[in-house]
Automatic annotation (TrEMBL):
Record organism: Phaseolus coccineus (Scarlet runner bean)
Keyword field: Signal
PANTHER family named among the record's database cross-references: STRESS UP-REGULATED NOD 19 PROTEIN, STRESS UP-REGULATED NOD 19-RELATED
Signal peptide: 1-22
The protein, known as: Stress up-regulated Nod 19
Length: 413
């Protein structure tokens, strides 16, 4: 068993190619120049306590040279009904860009061999290797977190001059969902606590961590214990049906023209242990962390990282990807000024999108264009604050979109 193949955040699970059976639900455009389309991913099967970690390749995506304005995702059942988090918890979904060798497409589809013919194109974030490579992605907070980008800004995609000859731009989903129906400890199950999962006896003898070494025996929980097809321990006598679910995702975009201003997208990680090799920063992101038991005080748990930005820009959008228990997350400039604080919203009901006690949204910063500028080489401080309670698999990811200019230099406006 190779654990890394089951850790979606590292995306090594892409070595297993799934059938491509996505279906478009509806295509529409409003009265202005913004277009939108809603799609369904291929189905994946869940059952009580079951964990699903999948890579869904070649998802449907708008064609042509476009500027994406928003990308929103939720989990739905076979009838298109939204699934509440207390039934199936959306740990995360990531949308990742890759290019595929056109001459290899048939071979890849038939052989499920991704070692040749595919190149992945990550975001502008600084984490090492292929860690946190996605352009869009959240978790249980997806329904309540805005992804809209204000005019005239957008993420430029499909520029034919930027795609290598003989290659085609494509997209995939990397997902982790956890069915908590009947789980002995529903909250612990969503945190991927190892002792609450039916792990094989040889788990710690073969499972590799983020550093490529065997997981230590004191690893309490997180991504490496949530592997595809494993199951959270269930209450005695609980039985429930399996069902097939999908991701329903809506993308809004514009056809690219001289009036659009491109954005760069960064993912910053509060676990990033930055060191330097001379003048070159070396990033050592861990992607997740454990908040230890602490009975001495009620002060919140704080995780900080000081992250140098080689290339700065105007801040256009900011938000955080966090987990239940978060108090807030703040990004500071080198001089201590607050660039953006993302605050959580917790549910109070039973309906999907308002699940009681669950994190259902994170606030978004929309600074007035030109009001906040990050300088080249500026060292930013990311501070993630959680309740001081034992927690495994905590995350502190901050998403920022930066613009080099406020109007397109080629615009005639």
């Amino acid at each position: 068993m190779k654990t890394l193949s089951n850790v979606a955040i590292i995306l090594s699970s892409m070595m297993m190619l799934l059938p491509v059976t996505t279906h478009s639900v509806v295509v529409e455009s409003n009265e202005s120049y913004i277009k939108s389309a809603t799609f369904l991913s291929e189905k994946f099967e869940v059952g009580p306590g079951k964990i699903v970690v999948k890579t869904l390749l070649d998802i449907e995506f708008p064609k042509g040279h476009i500027g994406v304005k928003s990308f929103d995702v939720e989990v739905v059942d076979e009838d298109g009904k939204s699934v509440p988090l207390y039934e199936t918890y959306l740990h995360h979904w990531f949308a990742v860009k890759y290019i595929e060798n056109i001459t290899m497409s048939h071979y890849i589809k038939q052989s499920h061999d991704l070692r040749n013919g595919i190149e992945f194109e990550r975001n502008d974030g600084m984490c090492q290797g292929f860690l946190l490579p996605h352009y869009w992605g959240l978790g249980g907070e997806s329904r309540g977190t805005s992804s809209n980008l204000p005019d005239p800004f957008a993420i430029e995609l499909g520029n034919p001059t930027k795609v290598k000859d003989g290659f085609k731009e494509k997209w995939l989903f990397s997902i982790m969902v956890i069915d908590t129906r009947g789980a002995h400890d529903r909250k612990g199950c969503t945190e991927c606590r190892c002792k609450l999962l039916n792990l094989p006896n040889y788990f710690y003898n073969v499972t590799m961590g983020i550093n490529g070494q065997l997981l230590p025996r004191n690893y309490k929980g997180g991504l490496f214990c949530c592997q595809d097809n494993l199951q959270c321990k269930l209450r005695n006598g609980f039985n429930g049906p399996t069902r097939k679910l999908s991701l329903r995702y809506k993308i809004r975009w514009v056809d690219w023209n001289e009036h659009q201003v491109p954005l760069r997208f960064y993912i910053l990680d509060s676990t990033d242990r930055v060191r330097s090799n001379g003048s070159i920063p070396i990033h050592d992101c861990q992607a997740e962390y454990t908040i230890p038991r602490n009975h001495d005080n009620d002060l919140p748990h704080v995780k900080k990282a000081n992250i140098p930005m080689i290339k700065g820009g105007y801040l256009i959008y900011g938000t955080a990807h966090m987990h239940t228990g978060v108090i807030n997350t703040t990004l500071y400039g080198q001089d201590g000024r607050v660039l953006c604080t993302s605050n959580p919203k917790y549910g109070t009901g039973k309906e999907a999108g308002n699940e009681n006690g669950y994190l259902i949204g994170m606030s978004v910063c929309y600074p007035k264009p030109g009001y906040i500028k990050i300088k080249d080489g500026e060292i930013l401080t990311l501070e993630s604050i959680y309740e001081n309670k034992f927690r495994t698999g905590a995350m502190g990811h901050f998403y920022i979109y930066l613009a080099d200019q406020l109007l397109n230099k080629d615009s005639t406006i």
